[in-house]
């Protein structure tokens, strides 16, 4: 069974499935690092963007993965991962034995465990490797990458991860990356909610918001979330870097996983409901910093 080429060989041939807000800049960073990237997605304009960056567009998923040493998937949720992985036109039926499948989507831990087991029967290795950092982190190649799977596969994939992110950690066996990502999304959602509440409190108190957020971010209340989302709050700019729809999905994942292991998430449960409420009000396509809109509605400053 042929694995990924060693450092003395050419770089591995990469197949990239899913060229959305995160997938497009991430695939482009691999191209910049010298990788041969063949991509497939459903939107022609995303394929055009890939070819303009120096990649190759494939007309089908099977075509994209057939000759790949390494297959990376970045799609919205578990149903999409299952749709591209299984079936006669899916990855497992068309990738060659020995290929390494890296799923960088944010999905349920159990989906990752099941995928690894099914792939093993086909001689295909799997890592679950969800990321944190949003669109900006993807563009700047500074993502945090939390990985589940075998150490040997992780070590083999490390150079690819290093072209995409800065904090790269093997968290445990299959599914562990997804579990850590679920915890990440819990922390991010609660943090954004706290920042949103502080913004409304500060504005209603007549404080200079820019000055207040600057000094807060320099102390213990500072965070990557506040650094990344400060301008969103100040400018009410909610163009999606990470959509409420996707964070709603992730809060469902962490809530279900916590229930399974018997962990209480009292604050997380409230924030999950606030995210769901915002989505129900038609804001699902906005950036998750739009949680500010929900706090403004509750405070009587937004219709």
Automatic annotation (TrEMBL):
Keywords: NAD, Oxidoreductase. Residues 175-294 form the 3-hydroxyisobutyrate dehydrogenase-like NAD-binding domain. Its EC number is 1.1.1.60. One of its GO terms (molecular function) is NAD binding. SUPFAM superfamilies: 6-phosphogluconate dehydrogenase C-terminal domain-like, NAD(P)-binding Rossmann-fold domains. One of its GO terms (biological process) is glyoxylate metabolic process. Residues 13-172 form the 6-phosphogluconate dehydrogenase NADP-binding domain. InterPro entries: 6-PGluconate_DH-like_C_sf (IPR008927), 6PGD_dom2 (IPR013328), 6PGDH_NADP-bd (IPR006115), HIBADH-like_NADP-bd (IPR029154), HIBADH-related (IPR015815), NAD(P)-bd_dom_sf (IPR036291), Tartro_sem_red (IPR006398). The keyword Ribosomal protein does not apply. Pfam families: NAD_binding_11, NAD_binding_2. The active site is at 181. It comes from the Bacteria. Belongs to the HIBADH-related family. This is 2-hydroxy-3-oxopropionate reductase. The lineage of its organism: Bacteria, Bacillati, Actinomycetota, Actinomycetes, Kitasatosporales.
